[in-house]
Structure formats: structure tokens, C-alpha cells
Amino acid sequence: MKAPAPPASAAALEAAAPEPERFHLRTPVDIRSVSLVLLTGLASLFVLHWAKAVFIPVMLSVLFSYALSPMVNWLELKRVPRWLSSAVLLLAFVSAMGSTVYSLGDQASQLVEAIPVAAQKFRQAMKTRSGKSNSTLDIVQKAAAQIEQAAQESGNAPAITRGAMRVIVEPARFDIKRYLWSGTIGLIALIGQTTAVLFLTYFLMLSGDTFRRKLIKLAGPTLSSKKITLQALHEVTGQIQRYLQVQLLTSVLVGVLTWLALLALKLDNAPVWGVIAGVLNLVPYVGSLVTAAASGLVGFLQFGSLNMAMAVGGASLLIHTLIGNLLTPWLTSRASRLSPVAVFVGLLAWGWLWGIWGLLLGVPILMIVKSVCDRVDDLKPIGEFLGS
């Protein structure tokens, strides 16, 4: 009778077990389609950058019309003609902006003149605080000057410079005609773009839901397709208007709180800083940092103390942080929230394309793109990628 076989070890059993079948994900890649997408994207970027003088006024007009259309619709229900309500709202908006700029013009000019002085004073204070009378750059410049002087005093200097012609470059004279002409051209261009934005905004508010009805007609002959298109347009319009209203409310709140906080700290030109904080609140991340740094720098110029400069900048940054992280997410629905990564990349892209206007319009454009993508089946992956 044979003795029972000893039990196999775990390692032996694992080695004897059959290797599980590996599954490979095979995704077809159409090189031609990918190339066409890349070429289309590059062509779109070129057109957006090349024709920014046209796209920027159009986007500003669309955003203004979205923000003011609810008031025009409400007045229309009260039997006020659309042409009259649109004109009155635009005139009131322009008058408010003009009166604000006129009343704060002197303070704004004083603030602009004070920033370079504050930067120089801050640099001197940092040198004194670090205990170094000269910076590394100054030491290198002095060493280079001494070496050059020693080379000129050496005996070989005349041999090297013999026969050389000394050239003196004189700066160009100030041409008042050229200066006035360039300034006039820039002012005329600004007035022309502002006028174009106002007229286009007026026409968009005057048209009402004309474009919406045209899109419904183009959706298809069936009643179901028209109903789906109408629901999608209503949702997109409501979501964009809600987002713009939240941004307007938070910007006004940031401006008022910043004004009161800096007024309590006895900082000069506090109303101007309130306006700056409210406008820069439309630029996520970057706007709060710029406001805090600039206000802290001017606070150091006024008070002459780094502690007061940190208090002024910290107060501005704290207001932006609390409203941006607590109030804005509560007012904004989850469906309209954007991913922080998408917002940051979008700011970089639109800032590169359109400069300062790209920083101000980048987030609303991303919001519009996300709202449209969430309602179109083929574009839902893009909306999911942009969302939080």
C-alpha cells in the first residue's frame, strides 16, 4: 500500500495553475480623423487670434445681452416696448459707468502714480531688512565697471583702440505730432469698439427670441425634435444667465467689502480699490492675487510698515477667498460648475489668444461651451471633462 503523497506547497500550486487569459483593449485609431481634428483646432486658434478685433466685441455683446435680457423680458410683460426698455437699460448702464469713472478719475490717477514709487520704496526696505546695502546685481555691475576701467588704463588700450571711430547715439527727439496722432488713433479705436458693442447689444436684446425660433425651425420637421431643441435652448439660456448673475452679485459684494475693509484700515483711495477688486473678481485665481499684491504695495508706501502692507493685502485676499470658496459654490448649481483644472487651462489659453480680454471672457466662454456640450449627445464627453 502506497503512502499518501505530501501536500503540495502554495508556491507549487500557484506555479501549476494556468495563467489567466489577458484581455487587450483594441481601440481603432483613424489617423486621418485625428489629423483633421488637429488641423481644424489649429485653424480655429489662428482665426480666433487673427480676428480678435471682431470676436471680442461680439462676445461682450452676447454676455451683456444675456445679463440684461431678463430685465427686458420683465418690462415687456409690463407692456413696455422692447426697443424702449433696451435703450433705457443701455443708457442707464453707460451713465453709471461714466459717472463712476469720472468720480474716481483723480483717485485712480494718483494710484497709478503711486505704484512705481511704492515698488522702489519696497525694494529699499527689503535691502535694509536683509542687512545688505547692495544687491548682488549692484556688486556685479561695480565689479564689471572696475574691470573695464583697469583695461582702459593698461598700456595695451591705445593699441587696441587705435584708428577706431567713436559713435555717439543720440536719442530721438520727442515728436509731439506723432504722439498726438497715435493717441488719437487709439482713442478713436476704443470709441469705435465701444459703440459697436453697445449697438450689437441693443440689437440682440431687441431681437428677443427670434434666433431661438429660427433654431427650432432648423431642428427638424417632427414635433419631438422641436420640443427637445426648445427645452435645450431654455436650459442653456437659463444656466448662462444664472452664472452671469452670480458673477455680477459676487463681484459687487467683493468690491463693497474690499472698500469697507480698506477704509477701516485707513488706506487712501479705498473706493478705487473696491472697483478694482470687483472687476478682477471676474478673473479666477489671478485677479485676487493681483489685487492683494498691488494693494499691499500701496499700503506699504502709505504706512511705511511691512506689517500694515501684509494687513492690507491679507484683507483683500481673505475677502476673495471666502466669497470664492463659500458663497459662489452655494449660489452656483452643481451642473454649471467648472473643473479648476479646466478653468486654469482655459485662462491660460484665452489670455494667450486675447490678452486681458481673454482673462475676463475666458470663464464665461467655457461656461457657454459646457452648457451646449451638456445638451448635445455627441458633445457630452467634452461637457463632462469641463465639469467638476
Distance between the termini: 72 Å
| Unreliable parts | none
Give the fraction of residues assigned to helices.
over 70%
Globally, the shape reads globular
Count the DSSP helices: 16
Determine the structural class based on helices, strands and strand pairing. mainly alpha
The main sheet comes to: none
Alpha carbon gyration radius: 32 Å
* Average predicted confidence as pLDDT: 76
Strand content: under 5%
Number of strand segments: 0
Order of helices and strands: HHHHHHHHHHHHHHHH
Description:
- This protein is mostly helical.
- Among the domains are: 51-109 and 183-208, no CATH class; 227-334, no CATH class; 338-388, no CATH class.
- Helix content is 79%, strand content 0%.
- It has helices at 10-16, 31-50, 52-77, 82-103, 105-130, 136-153, 157-161, 176-207, 210-219, 223-264, 270-280, 286-303, 306-331, 340-354, 356-375, 380-386.
- Helix 3 (52-77) packs across helix 10 (223-264).
- The longest helix is centred in the middle third of the chain and has 42 residues, at 223-264.
- It is globular.
- 20% of the residues are buried.
